[in-house]
């Protein structure tokens, strides 16, 4: 029988932008549209999903396994919560054929440190929560094959990282379906070892939260409560503490601060909230377990954080999908400059972790409570992230962080852009280089770029040294660190967060010291890169009316540069004691910025020769996003100028 509800779900599936994404039915419909789009790319027996021809450091079969396994985070959750999907048989068949050594679609046995291990996490989760649909109907041979394939990782070497969670989930899933290949001793040993990694509830990048560790702990706490109650309670306590920090990485529009690697996973950035709902919903809990949440968190607040993020992607970021509904390799649009060498065309479907909340039935508390807005008590606040060496702020309506002291322990593509910038925004994102020859190619937003070869190439901060907080207390503190672009050049940087007196400005101070010699360096410091087109969709032009005009366009004069477009306002002002830098409104090369493919960037530029005394650069950076194309009056805030803490003024003297 065709009902009004079924017609609505079909319409929403065909046009995600028409889907309000406020109820469980809405979210299930959106997931269905994502899963449906994969069908034409699925192999005859379902085990491989081929979405493109770009390569990774691992083999093609493993890449197509990614395409199969990662959507199962969403599918298994939908089935676990009592939902259904017409294409479930594709994944059920794929599990059987992918693990059958005699099948043409066999995934291949696992070797040491094999990429296939990563995909065992989703499969183990699926067996744990949706075994009735994905395991139960299979033949005994298929069950034996799946057990042998997953269990085949138990005697293999794994990286000593969060990868151990993948083996935990493989064994957890096998134990939930009573497979003889489950190795509970190995699972306990892995969990015990993972606990040694714990350094506190700290957001380092999204792997420490939504992509991997926190989500894994929350799921485990829900699924293993009866078998491992003490560890599960510890995981819930960690999540409670972590959530109070993680709140500050999201803005009231549902956007998360762009920082770190693997951003191709997109709405997986909010998966922590989805997993928190799954683990803490009292209607789905176990008697005697404490499911309380610390203020200001409620299930309604969590629901808002999760659904606003999904709506942000579905309603405002059409470039995240191609015209057939496949997630693209990029962020807001297809962008291979962003990718790591482990990103296959199937990698973006890690985003389906955001649908873990669908494992809760429609009758659950999470789906019946009213969605709440971003907590009022956390607006216009600044938060010290002690272990992460970051300061987050949302003063004036702009959510971003100042960062020092973070870098990857191994080479990651574009790591200077992903970890080394001075600031990262939820609204404006960050930029990555497309080449190194010109400043336009560099995409040098929120960084101090240095050239020592006549601007032939540019270097930005990648590795920081001696990073620490300074100041009287958490309400009056800043970040301080060292970095070395060249052996004979050292730069010390202070990052000072905004204040209530000038909420849209933050301050950066750099002390540049060069050793004696004939060194000449060029320096270019960038503000936020923002959308660089005008209302006529052509490149922004210089405004008429000077600095006091609020008109759309670019402005640059003396030590000032500013860009105004439908995305908001970005500006930079030189406050240096010996102010010599020139402002410029730079059109960065296409596809550098992750949010705006055509971006403009206010910068300050200068050349410096070796001097006996230190060169002090003091920079004020302004940023105001316009949400939903709503233009705000901002000139009063622009005319304010931030103050430099007295301690630093004294230091410069």
UniProtKB/TrEMBL annotation:
Pfam families: DUF2264 (PF10022), DUF2264_C (PF20938). Residues 1-21 are annotated as: Disordered. InterPro entries: DUF2264_C, DUF2264_N, UCP014753. Residues 24-373, 381-648 form the DUF2264 domain. Residues 1-20 have a biased composition (Polar residues). PANTHER family: LINALOOL DEHYDRATASE_ISOMERASE DOMAIN-CONTAINING PROTEIN. This is Uncharacterized protein. It comes from Gymnopus androsaceus JB14.
